[in-house]
Design a protein that fits this description.
Blueprint: H1 9-28, H2 33-51, H3 53-57, H4 63-69, H5 73-80, H6 89-96, H7 102-107, H8 109-121, H9 129-132, H10 139-180, E1 184-186, E2 190-191, E3 202-204, E4 207-209, E5 212-214, E6 216-219, E7 225-233, H11 236-258, E8 263-271, H12 275-283, E9 287-290, H13 295-303
Parallel strand pairs: 1-3, 2-4, 7-8, 8-9
Antiparallel strand pairs: 3-6, 4-5, 6-7
């Protein structure tokens, strides 16, 4: 049976350099509008929230009032970003032993108190210095706090959008390639045994294979199942997590569970990657395909007949 090509260190380095340059060009050409959109959306949210901080500090807000204050998704995000550093939703749930769901906060004064207490305990003393000093903010202080807070959220939102957009683009490219090859898409499914996988010449989107999910599962014409993970990275350090930890970790589990002759684990990658990490990953059974060289994936699928 045809096996995925093993790239030499020189080839991996050359493609890593090309992928890095493509990433650099895309980042430099990135429109400013997305950041501005997030910033503009959160300025009024923080303005309203910051004006109610004295009531929060003094515990003057009733549970229903506090629930109304964080009733929207953006307001709940802004509330978490009052902290230094911002508190994730999962961390807040753990620290406060509750959620930010308005229905829970509105009906339970103790839950509302715990959420307020956690944020006030870690509130940013630099952005909101007047709270520690027990006074009203000056207008410049208020304006600076609003802008600084909106900047924090906008920057994080752009980072998240970049990652998800890059992955969506990779997935769209793979799906287009498969359609061009006449590989038919079928519904996703949980696959405990390979008999449940798509038929030869079919593929499904994100599905569970054994104990973990793959972005695509393709039944090759020779009967093997190709499990594809799409990975985008913005740094060499991040690339180790994406490929050597996440994708390779799944690949090892799939090979152990289903057998090397039946599974072809593959990572479609784009962005900034350390070529030596990629060399190590492919040596342990993970096929490497670059987003800018998807014809390599096409060639392998065509040859696996």
């Amino acid at each position: 049976m045809t096996e995925p090509r093993l790239w030499t260190p020189t080839e991996l380095e050359a493609d890593a350099a090309q992928a890095r340059e493509l990433f650099r060009q895309a980042r430099l050409d990135e429109p400013f509008g997305l950041y501005s959109e997030f910033f503009d959306a959160f300025v009024p949210v923080f303005a309203g929230l910051i004006d109610r901080l004295p009531d929060l500090v003094s515990a003057a807000l009733e549970p229903r009032e506090f629930a109304d204050l964080v009733a929207t998704a953006d307001a709940r995000t802004a509330f978490r970003y009052l902290a230094a550093p911002p508190v994730s939703e999962d961390d807040l749930k753990t620290l406060a032993e509750t959620t930010l769901a308005p229905s829970a906060l509105r009906g339970d004064a103790e839950q509302a108190r715990r959420v307020q207490s956690v944020i006030l305990h870690v509130i940013d003393a630099h952005r909101f210095a007047w709270l520690r000093e027990g006074r009203e903010p000056t207008e410049p202080e208020r304006a600076t706090a609003i802008v600084a807070s909106a900047v924090l959220v906008a920057a994080r939102k752009v980072e998240t959008s970049r990652r998800s957009d890059a992955k969506r683009k990779q997935e769209a490219q793979v799906k287009q390639l498969l359609a061009g090859l006449g590989i038919v898409e079928v519904p996703p499914r949980d696959i405990r045994l390979l008999g449940s996988a798509p038929e030869p010449g079919e593929f499904c989107g994100e599905s569970r294979l054994g104990g973990s999910r793959a972005d695509f599962l393709i039944r090759l014409h020779d009967g093997r199942v190709m499990a594809v993970e799409c990975k985008a990275s913005n740094s060499a350090v991040n690339s180790f997590k994406r490929v050597n930890h996440e994708a390779l970790g799944k690949a090892k589990a799939w090979i152990e569970g289903f057998g090397k002759r039946q599974i072809v684990p593959c990572a479609v990658i784009g962005g900034v990657f350390n070529s030596s990490n990629l060399e190590a990953a492919q040596a342990e059974g993970l096929a490497i395909v670059w987003s800018h060289r998807l014809d390599d994936l096409r060639g392998f699928i065509e040859a696996a007949a």
